[in-house]
Amino acid sequence: MNPPFPLSRRQALSRVACGFGFLALAGLAAQTTARAANPLAARPGHHRPRAKRVIFLFMGGGVSHLDSFDYKPALYANDGRMLEFLDQRAIAKTGAGATGRVMKPLWEFRQRGQSGRWVSELFPHLARHADDYCVVRSMHTEGVAHGPATLFLHTGATNQLRPSMGSWVTYGLGAESENLPAFVSLSPTLANGGPRNYGSGFLPAVFQGTALGRSGQKAAEAAFRHVRHPDLPASAQLRQFELIRALNGEQLRARPGDRELEALAHSYELAWRLQTHAPDALDLSRESPATLALYGIGQEPTDDYGRQCLMARRLAEAGVRYIQVNYSDNTNNPAWDQHSNMPKHLDHAVRVDKPVAGLLADLKARGLLEDTIVWWGSEFGRTPYAERNGTGRDHNPTGFSVLLAGGGFKPGFAYGETDEFGHFAVENKVHMHDLHATILHQLGLNHEQLTFRHDGRDYRLTDVHGRVVHDLLA
Amino acid sequence: MKTPPGFLCRLARACAGLAFAAPAVAADPAGIEFFEKQIRPLLASRCLECHAAEHKIKAGLRLDHPAGWLVGGDSGPAVLPGRPDESPLIKAIRYTKLEFEAMPPRSALPREEVALLEEWVRRGAPAPDEAAPVPGAAPARRAMTVEEGRRFWSFVPPVSAPVPAPAAAGWARTDLDRFIAARWPEKDLAPAPDADPAALLRRASFDLLGLPPTPEQTAAFVRDPGPAAFARQVDAMLASPQFGERWGRRWLDVARFAESSGGGRTLLFKDAWRYRDYVIDAVNRDLPFDAFIREQLAGDLLPAADPAERARRLTATAFLALGPTNYEEQNKDQLRMDIIDEQLDTLGKAFLGMTLSCARCHDHKFDPVTLRDYYGLAGILRGTHTLHNYTDNVARWVDTALPLPPEEERAVAEHEARVAALEKKAARLRAAARAPAVKNPRHVALAELPGLVLDEGQARVVGAWKSSRTTPGYVGEGYLTDENEGKGAKTISFTPALPHSGRYEVRLAYTSAANRASNVPVTILHADGEATVTVNQRTAPPSGERLLSLGQFRFEKDGQGYVLISNEGTDGFVIVDALQLLPLDARGEGSAAPVARADPAAEERAAELRRVEAELKQLAASGPRRPLAMSVREAAGEIGDTEIRVRGIARNLGPKVPRGFLAVADRGETPRFRPDESGRRELADWIADPGNPLTARVTVNRVWAWLLGEGLVRTVDNFGTTGDAPTHPELLDHLALRFTANGWSVKALVREIMLSRVYQLSSVPPPGAAERDPANRLLSHARRRRLEAEEIRDALLLAAGRLDPALGGPNFGTTPPTSEYGFVFADLRRGVYTPAFRNRRPDLFEAFDFADINAPLARRHTTTVAPQALFLLNHPFVIEQARHAAGRLARETPDAQDDERFAHACRIILGRSPRPSELALARDFLAGVPAGEPSAAAWAQVVQALFASADFRYLE
Fold it and tell me: Quick check: A129 and A409 in contact, CB under 8 A?
């Protein structure tokens, strides 16, 4: 139990964190400093960090690794053959596998860049950046259905209530900016766990993610919530704010030295700063036409995701530590979930390919890629065999790929292998827990030490699992 | 600790050791040589890092000695000589993840090595006979044994202690005060003064009713304070139905009450509100707490005096049913055990203050709760059905029809008969409408069919299907046949592009004949899951219909929905002709009627159908509805003991253990279970027994915490060894014994605490308290608390004059939404009636720490963060209530000066008169209002500022 955070000392005083409010707990501490009234104050991690922030580009529904980044010649050789596969859905239901029809990739693979990484035509823009990211081809995870697997990706558990990864990071490191939240999720989906994917679980609510917009809404409309009075002009609201500040000042005077009430006063000051600064962070009108074009903004079909990616860069610059950029929708079978129509993958790819490549190029040009981890990936991959109708692929949590750029990950590097069909990760396997541990490590956090006492035991993002995959690190 | 983690599981290993004696190892020299040359080095390099005495022994399995793999680990023997396909070790290295984790965990073994190990096992797993292994490293840290546990304070039955006679005897009003005051000298503390009467009344009113007192009530009490007047106030509050709303809400937190399942695919619990109303009613009736326990755990098994009591008791069992179940878990064995685990977790914390679920995979690490205890309890719940069945792709909970009083029962039966007759008539009319006018007996044109029709040409075809027109009566351009060949390799799928999201009836066209298959699997992937329907193509669709209905399903526009016909396992020709989707929503079932055509008979039928449908709709809206409740039911045929699940893995069965309770808290004899019941009744009796050392203590402690801000045991849900010890053990026992002696009356307990002087202290710490007792464990002063989410909401609405006082009833409106997303929270009744969704809640609840309802919770978090400030500054809900409240002020003080009106506002919102400094601030603000701004707008801003002030949000 050693979080990089004053809570540890307080928890040592009293093992009651589970049922307590954060500030009630803080109220027990003898030490009183203005800083301690702010649980979001920035603090050092467990070791020297290699990266300061994360931009996670979530591809909801399950991108096919077999049609994009995991090249498997055996799929061509066996195309159309009926073979026995250990289908995970069948296994979960019946304890046995099932027959499936092998399906070759629908997009041509070529070796790209100096590194010679295989990338398919599905992502032509990302293909040009093959030397900029590391491909982990041996990912595996938990959960066969979207709900459990999506929750697992975000919280390290398929169904139990757990804090999301961004909340853990915020709990560990605090906020870099005093004017903005530390953890933002752009256009999150309402389905498959919805807010739990950026929720703080049993961590104090102050560590939860802030949703900007929601899936299905135009990215251009994404905004911080409740930062503007619906109709009071700014000058009038300032007058009202002064009244609130003065009333609270009077009421506090009756209770000198009360930390909880001090925290209340502090919360109004922080709110006012947020209200003043937050809208600017999302204002794309200050960006040059060249930058907008780089992300595909102003063109279809890339405008929407392009805006999200550019907002992510602006938020990163403004000091937001954990930014999730969602490509999903609100259905139970999200965007990339092509059970019956693999060619539809292309519709989604053209929407994200250029924006993501633009983000990588922009971050690199600004020197931000150095200390920003860009993580691109889904909750799982897809099967090498077609679902019964021969044109779609089912979920595959046993083997899939993610991309990791910047933040000290080896560029132009491929790690791990799936079997010859790309079904199971077999060599240098990386579990989702391992990926979580590795990203935390780059941020300066030790996944075994980043714990919180709840329900009588210490919890962590990686449960009792996870290892840092040092091979991925430059 | 719900996921099976990588802990050693000592008990299971011991059991495995008893069950499997190691057979003798064949001493064949060639085999031994094979082992030494090929296998030993392989094991050493690949396995021993995690499975050897000198390193670690994961999963209890040693591979450094023959006895290690023959006796095996937690999961039994790893090697079955001669039977590679059955040997767990081989299964694990084959990397299939079927029953065992794929091993080695990071990378699969090369194929040659897998082959070598298979060969070795096939040859009988020869190995030299080596000396018996030294036992694995002794367990480092051991939990308390059951015997030790029985001496731990919370498992020792409460004992009556004499009431102390503290030095400050004159100060004390009740025995509770004497217990508390007796401890003050330890820290040299004197009590704080009594609370100011206005502050005391506001505290009591929020604590008991969740609402502020009225200004008149406060004025009267301030004029005439004192213990007797306060007792009258408390008695009036205890008798108010709002007491049940406030205290019911508290129990609902403990019961992790929710109206959706949460998690990935969150499903709405449309009838959960009945359980909520049951709880509120039980509190208001002061149902003895032991009866409350019995009804929630076993209400369906208890005798009932009348239908109303029966209905109430059935409804109470929703306690077990409304957990955050992952209904789409594909491994249904796992799902079943997950539900049981969640139930044990909830009832353990709610009634016993124990974290039982820690013992799912291994003996509890800290508490004297064994794997055996856990599966003894699990057996009871295994004999109980929480799901409709354990096979559905997306599972369903158990809905039970509630009995009605005889006259209502008659009315419902009549109504149901009437509806059935009309539905039959409507079906007949619809069938007639759908049967296309027979223009061409050989085939039906697509345009003649209503709804969205896809001919086979629009389907995606996999495998060799032949086009045919041999059998007449097809839709569109003929049909496709699999020619009764290539079974399992041919499919046809339709991916309809639907005009809008909603429910559709899915119908399949095929030409029937004797040579057809009788078992064609048709899979429908719809918005709520997947369904497979088996179609018999030897028979025609019923009653002259041309297409066969496959059922009604919800689809999303632009969703991934499809209908797939396969020839897998079929016993004849499989025919696919066309697919029809008839919209059922919004436009009404009537839209299923074909587009109007110049056919008088058809038009007449359509008109008649519209009449019948209108009547049905009207009946559905007005007629008596048979109430359904979420509940559990006995699992007929599955009553009995269950097996230990080794390492918590659902399919990894260990030995059976007899049903039972917690050995450590059990002083009686071995429990006897009725042979034909799950054992829930016995479990409830055991928990609700006055002799149970935990139940009464946990309950009185929780009530104490709800009123005093902290429990005597601070970890209110954890009375185990990792929890806190009681600060006042004698007082805790005193309260527990009185509670059971008073017939488990919660109201009597609340009253006793409210009337103590300790409750009525000021929250200003007395001199020295902040230094000598910073956590206020000795209760020298009251604890200030922030209003909870519902209290803030209800107080805002009350100040605005808009709170709807209606009690109870459903809260989704007449047409339940399909999802919690998009639900508009518009109910103006008390916050307890706001739908408690697991994934989504109103902004105010989100901002102000509404209970997390995924797990039982007796204490909510209380945070003070910027989003709360932003909410109070900018949220339309707050602004709206401020405007209404300003209007109310103007109405109630029409001719008043600003000072007087501001004072009235303070009395409503803060429960007290303004201080001079506050009056001055308001005066300045109002004086500075720009000319021309209406006074109502300025006053709304003042009111909003009071809502945003500390003294509104906190109770002194």
Answer: no
In a domain? residue A82: no
Pair (A468, A355) in one structural domain: yes
Q: Is the pLDDT of residue B593 over 50?
A: no
Q: Are residues A230 and A212 in the same domain?
A: no
Structural domains counted in chain A? 3
Identify whether residues A28 and A55 lie together within a single domain: no
Kindly state whether residue A89 falls inside one of the protein's structural domains: no
Q: Are residues A230 and A216 in the same domain?
A: no
What residues does A386 pair with on adjacent strands?
Answer: A101, A393
Per-residue exposure over B396-432, b if at least 16 CB sit within 10 Å of its own CB, e if not = ebbebebbbeeeeeeebeebeeeeeebeebbeebbeb
Please judge whether B874 and A195 are an interchain contact, meaning their C-beta atoms are less than 8 angstroms apart: no
Q: Are residues A166 and A55 in the same domain?
A: yes
Give, in order, the Cα–Cα distances in Å from B805 to each of B87, B830, B883: 67, 7, 20
Task: For chain A, say whether B840 makes contact (Cβ under 8 Å).
Answer: yes
Q: Do A236 and B941 touch (CB under 8 A)?
A: yes
Torsion angle of the four alpha carbons A221, A223, A228, A233, in this order, in degrees rounded to the nearest 10 = -40
Closest A-chain CA to B341: A160
Q: Would A407 be classed as within a structural domain?
A: yes
Helix ranges (H only) for A103-189 are 124-128, 146-155, 165-173
Using an 8 Å CB-CB cutoff, list chain A residues near B774.
28, 30
ipTM, interface predicted TM-score of the complex = 0.74
On whether the CB atoms of residues A72 and A401 are closer than 8 A, the answer is no
Q: CA–CA separation, B53 vs B134, rounded Å?
A: 8
CA distance B936 to chain A (A): 14
**CA dihedral for B723, B727, B728, B732, sign (positive or negative):** negative
| Chain B contact set for A150 (CB, 8 A) | 264
Q: Is B534 on the interface with A (CB under 8 A)?
A: no
Per residue in B8-66, pLDDT (tens digit) is 233 333 333 333 333 334 457 788 888 888 888 888 888 888 887 777 778 778 888 88
In terms of domains, do A293 and A170 share one? yes
CA distance to partner chain A, nearest, from residue B925 (Å): 7
- Chain B environment of A464 (Cβ under 8 Å): 5-7
Tokens 């041999």 belong to B470
> A420 at the B interface (CB within 8 A)?
no
Selected residues 573-632 of chain B with any CB under 8 Å from a CB in chain A: none
Residues 6+ apart with CB under 8 A from A149: A141, A142, A143, A158, A379, A380, A395, A397
Closest CB to B722 among A15, A260, A339: A15
The pLDDT profile of chain A, 474 residues, written as one tens digit per residue, is: 333 333 333 333 333 222 222 333 333 232 333 344 577 889 999 999 999 999 999 999 999 999 999 999 999 999 988 888 887 777 777 767 778 889 999 999 999 999 999 999 999 999 999 999 999 999 999 988 888 899 999 999 987 778 999 999 999 999 998 888 899 999 988 778 888 899 888 887 778 888 888 887 888 888 888 888 998 998 999 999 999 999 999 998 888 777 778 778 888 988 898 898 888 889 999 999 999 999 999 999 999 999 999 999 999 999 999 999 999 877 767 889 998 789 999 999 999 999 999 999 999 999 999 999 999 999 999 999 987 656 789 999 999 999 999 999 999 999 999 999 999 999 999 999 999 999 999 999 999 999 998 877 789 999 989 999 999 999
Identity of the residue in A229, A253, A456 whose CB atom sits nearest the CB atom of B722: A456
Radius of gyration of chain B (CA): 35
Question: Domain check: are A437 and A364 in the same one?
Answer: yes
- A256 plus A132 within the same structural domain: no
Residue in B closest to A264 by C-alpha: B864
In a domain, A126, yes or no: yes
Q: What would the pLDDT profile of B77-126 be if each residue is shown by its tens digit?
A: 888 888 888 888 998 888 876 667 788 888 888 888 898 899 999 988 88
The CATH architecture to which B437-593 belongs is Sandwich (2.60)
pTM: predicted TM-score of the whole model, two decimal places = 0.74
Q: Do B949 and A244 touch (CB under 8 A)?
A: yes
State the residue range of the domain holding A27.
1-35
pLDDT value of position B355:
84
